[in-house]
Amino acid sequence: MKTCILLDEETMLRKIQNLTFSELYEKRVLLRVDFNVPIKDKIMSDDTRISAALPTINFLTKNGAKVILISHLGRPCGTIDKKLSLAPIRDKLCELTGKNIIMASDCIGSKVEHTIASMTAGNIVLLENVRFYAEESKNDETFSKQLASLADIFVNDAFGLVHRAHASNTGVTKHLPSYAGYLIQKEVDFLSHAIESPKRPLIAIIGGAKISTKTKVLKNLLDKVDKLIIGGGMAFTILKAKGYEIGKSLFEEDQLQEAKSFLEKAKTSKAELFLPLDQIVTENIKDSQNVQTVDIKSIPSDMLGVDIGPKTIDSIKKSIKDAGTIIWNGPLGVFEVTKFSTGTCAVAEIMADSNAITIIGGGDSASAISQAGLSDKMTHVSTGGGASLEFLEGSILPGLQVLLQEEVV
Length: 409
Ligand code: AMP
What we know:
With 409 residues, this protein is of the alpha/beta class. The protein has helices spanning 21-24, 48-52, 54-62, 87-97, 110-117, 134-137, 141-148, 182-196, 215-222, 235-241, 256-268, 310-320, 342-353, 363-371, 385-393, 398-401; strands spanning 28-32, 39-40, 43-44, 66-70, 102-103, 124-126, 153-156, 178-180, 202-206, 227-230, 272-274, 278-282, 292-295, 304-308, 325-329, 357-360, 380-381. The strands form four sheets. A six-stranded parallel beta sheet has the order 5-6-4-1-7-8. A six-stranded parallel beta sheet has the order 11-10-9-15-16-17, with helices on both faces. Bound molecules: adenosine monophosphate.
């Protein structure tokens, strides 16, 4: 499969910095951002994704564009859910930009058009949650046109969504000149360098619950990395495929064949495959009773593996010591339960202490790094878990394809 290599002249993204002041001044720019931030009881626990969009917002306002921000929040699935309004994000944006940001009551329609008509150079309007319309996720043609009619130029900076073809990141590009913002450029740059021209040795650590969501990335990584470390719940289907007893650990029976084919590929690959050597096991996650550390070959039949054990942590530490680049996606245990977060936290700390280029593939690993207060110690923490995973699979992502320079599309 062709990989989404975006490093050379030929395959470059159309970048916003190539737009001049006169091309932007007083122009209406529809800017797709990913403001899908965690909000509970009106409290935002992490504003990373909002801060990450600031370089693009600032560039556009400094050049006198009228910036129309569009985002989703949660999964309202085509219905209006006031709890998923972007209003709290407007307040955060005002604070971060020092500007008065106008909140629109919708994302299409005459009221929105009226609000946009009253904008002047450098103004910012935040549209209401685009997923209040079911047409958004369906990449509906009419809806895409309605969104596009609000603006003269489209800029995409929502990296977290580039693996999806939705109206507000793909559909609109059929109707407007379209460019990549700074965040998307940065994400693509880090991920493509890490995978195509890394400082070696290149080590990937892949964890998480389900192997079914990661077989493609595992197989692609075998062709790219020097060492592939696998942990988390997904390791057990592979261990089972190797003939190990895994007790009551997470197991996807329908993935057994895939796991066997992955192991076959690993045998002939130049990458060294590393699987857990020991596990923290328990009878049940909820009560966390009877917690033991066992060798990977001795998981009791009535227990399940919930975290990597000390021998595994030690071995990962040794493997990582001389790494040139480390990519990490997915927790190595049930890290939401403090008792079973030791392995995930240890890997976060090992990476923070390493001199390697460290790339965190978003999602749960980014949360773990952030909880440990180690985000600043990583070279790059991606804002898109699913997107970075699909990028590492080698897939051409629809949200990026529409931003590639014309001649290579
Ligand atoms: P994913 O979305 O596939 O990256 O999976 C993240 C989830 O994997 C987290 O909610 C973890 O609790 C879960 N997880 C990691 N290790 C295990 C394990 N050994 N058993 C069950 N779940 C796990």
